[in-house]
Design brief:
With 374 residues, the protein is mainly α. The protein is built from 17 helices and three strands. The protein has a three-stranded antiparallel beta sheet with strand order 1-2-3. Strand 1 and strand 2 form a beta hairpin. Helix 3 packs antiparallel against helix 7 and helix 7 packs across helix 16. The radius of gyration is 27 Å and the shape is globular. The chain starts with a helix and ends in a 5-residue tail after the last helix.
């Protein structure tokens, strides 16, 4: 028995030696390959950086895309030349964006005109102690904002999407570099907390109060009929409060495209009803990134729908590029930035105007950069 164990140990030792030797040889081969390619890349990279077409116009910049160890293909060179002369051809979704911008039909997933029943439901709960809970949780102003319609500026959103980089979740602008909505932007526009209890499957428990077996069959109208109209003459109970928050999250925050109240946000609705320390900002920002990725991947064709809180992206663009924002909008210190934009009249501009403004913009003032920090 001892001899057998000794033999097994020797065999395993030889096996590990072979594995280590193979791994060492692989590392050596990789090092040699990297050294050879590094020399070729350094020479090519230095030559590439010396060309005027790669300089974005400011000291600090980042180059995106593949490394070319040999000559840059003719297609890439042509695209670079077109971009240098202000041609929109290199931007893959520009043609589709122009078509999507001209559509007059409503886009599912966007905060469309608010029916009279929703403001009534908001007013019903606003007169209770739950309103004080909303203020402590940082959602009161956003709930009030949802009672107004946010008009969709198709030209502005489409232009912004033309520069959206799904790999970095940033807008890559030729003159300004990378820009992206941040947690501070979300807080300034909506009031959502950037910190607090994390929203995840590990921290948000399964809903226990809301009777989901009945709720999962409801469209928005049926859901409101069941939880609001049926109890309109009675005192507001916790179950109705949770249902109210679930309706608000699905329709006005995350803008679910199915047109139904879904179970995914039931746990968050219950957590918001029971706690005033939920970090809503990060999860909203994450779903904004996801929604922008989906829209870019769909190439803005005729079937493209807004997915996620794209309304937040529009407001963010309007704040940092006031030349594309609704005219005569004034911001007040005691008011969320989003509240000033929520019902503003959209400017009469086209995709071409918005695209050229974003593409040719090379400077923002200190006040424009710090619009969400005041």
């Amino acid at each position: 028995m001892a001899d057998s164990n000794h033999f097994t140990a020797l065999r395993d030792k030889d096996k590990y030696k072979d594995r280590d030797r193979d791994r060492e040889n692989a590392y050596k081969g990789l090092s040699i390959a990297l050294a050879e390619n590094h020399a070729a890349f350094s020479e090519c990279h230095a030559s590439y950086l010396s060309t005027d077409s790669t300089k974005p116009g400011h000291e600090y910049h980042c180059i995106l895309g593949p490394y070319f160890f040999k000559e840059v293909s003719e297609a890439i060179q042509m695209a670079s030349q077109l971009a240098q002369h202000g041609n929109v051809a290199p931007y893959a979704c520009t043609r589709e964006a122009a078509s999507w911008q001209k559509q007059s039909r409503k886009s599912s997933g966007w905060l469309l005109s608010t029916k009279s029943e929703w403001p009534k439901w908001v007013n019903r709960l606003k007169t209770t102690t739950y309103a004080d809970h909303w203020k402590r949780a940082g959602i009161y102003d956003a709930i009030i904002m949802s009672t107004s319609s946010i008009p969709l500026d198709r030209a502005l959103v489409a232009a912004g999407l033309c520069f959206w980089n799904t790999a970095t979740n940033t807008m890559d602008l030729p003159g300004l570099g990378m820009m992206s909505p941040t947690l501070l932007d979300v807080a300034a526009i909506t009031g959502f907390r950037p910190h607090g209890k994390e929203v995840s499957a590990l921290t948000i428990p399964h809903p226990k109060i809301l009777n989901w077996d009945a709720a999962d069959r409801y469209s928005y109208s049926n859901f409101m009929e069941h939880y609001f109209k049926a109890n309109e003459e009675e005192e507001v109970k916790m179950e109705e409060h949770i249902a109210f928050l679930l309706y608000w999250l699905c329709k006005y925050v995350f803008c679910v495209t199915s047109g139904r109240v879904i179970k995914e946000w039931a746990g968050l609705a219950e957590a918001l009803a029971l706690s005033d320390n939920i970090a809503l900002g990060p999860i909203v920002l994450a779903h904004l990134y996801r929604g922008l990725q989906k829209m870019v991947q769909q190439r803005l064709n005729g079937k493209t729908t807004t997915s996620g809180p794209i309304w937040l992206f529009q407001m963010w663009l309007q704040l940092y590029f006031p030349e594309l924002a609704p005219p005569l909008v004034s911001y007040h210190q005691a008011q969320l930035l989003g509240a000033s934009l929520v019902a503003a009249t959209l400017p009469d501009h086209t995709l071409e105007i918005c695209f050229n403004t974003l593409q040719k913009c090379t400077h923002r003032t200190d006040d424009q950069w710090s619009v969400c920090l005041k």
